[in-house]
TrEMBL record:
ATP binds at residues 10-15, 116. CDD domains: SK. This is Shikimate kinase. The lineage of its organism: Bacteria, Pseudomonadati, Bacteroidota, Sphingobacteriia, Sphingobacteriales. Mg(2+) binds at residue 14. InterPro entries: P-loop_NTPase, Shikimate/glucono_kinase, Shikimate_kinase/TSH1. HAMAP family: Shikimate_kinase. GO terms for molecular function: ATP binding; magnesium ion binding; shikimate kinase activity. GO terms for biological process: amino acid biosynthetic process; aromatic amino acid family biosynthetic process; chorismate biosynthetic process.
Length: 167
């Protein structure tokens, strides 16, 4: 069983993926971190060199060709479900869980913006506007997840509880 955690930057995919994998005693894969490990570039460097479209091609290829263990928790990149047929692919190959969070809560989580190239130059006010716009675009993809959980105040135990029906 592969469990894909999806959602906007800062909703806690990487953090909760580790907690959930620990509880389920299975490996965790963070696709952003895998991209960094495979390319030797940070996400910001990859964007700077190949542009967003180069990054989207690469992350989709990584999603579909990664040699996943039978059971694992996968933290995806925030934009990954919204490009190509990535969302359909994840739904066909595992369980998808949308960690949903309000824009204002996301702003308060996103202090360290330098490693997130899409938002690195925005102040809090600009970030709130940007996130509201982006979430409108992205929600039709994110909400195709099989399970939607409120990510505010979420921890590994609550997440495990929310997905109990499917694991
Ligand atoms: N339950 C929580 N309460 C408060 N802060 C949290 C909680 N979970 C995660 N955070 C903090 O929120 C920030 C974003 O978390 P994280 O990096 O896991 O998000 P992400 O969804 O993986 O983002 P990205 O899409 O950019 O990789 C981190 O600074 C993390 O420490
Ligand atoms: O929301 C996004 O588009 C992104 C989220 C991050 O996880 C990274 O994959 C990258 O910074 C792009
Ligand atoms: Mg992450």
């Amino acid at each position: 069983m592969k469990i894909f955690l999806i959602g906007y930057m800062g909703c806690g995919k990487s953090t909760k993926a580790k907690q959930l994998a620990h509880r389920l005693d299975c490996p965790v894969i963070d696709l952003d971190a895998e991209i960094v490990a495979k390319t030797g570039k940070t996400i910001a460097e990859y964007f700077a060199e190949f542009g967003e479209s180069g990054f989207r091609d690469y992350e989709s290829e990584m999603l579909k060709t990664y040699d996943y263990p039978e059971t694992c928790v996968v933290a995806t990149g925030g934009g990954l479900p919204c490009f190509f047929d990535n969302m359909e692919w994840m739904n066909a190959h595992g369980e998808t869980v949308y960690l949903q969070m309000e824009p204002a809560a996301l702003v308060s989580r996103l202090h360290n913006r330098q490693k997130r190239p899409l938002i690195k130059d925005l102040d809090d006010e600009q970030l709130l506007v940007f996130i509201k716009e982006k979430l409108q675009e992205r929600d039709p993809f994110y909400t195709q997840a099989k399970i939607i959980v409120d990510a505010f105040d979420l921890d590994g135990e609550k997440l495990e509880e929310a997905i109990k029906g499917v694991i």
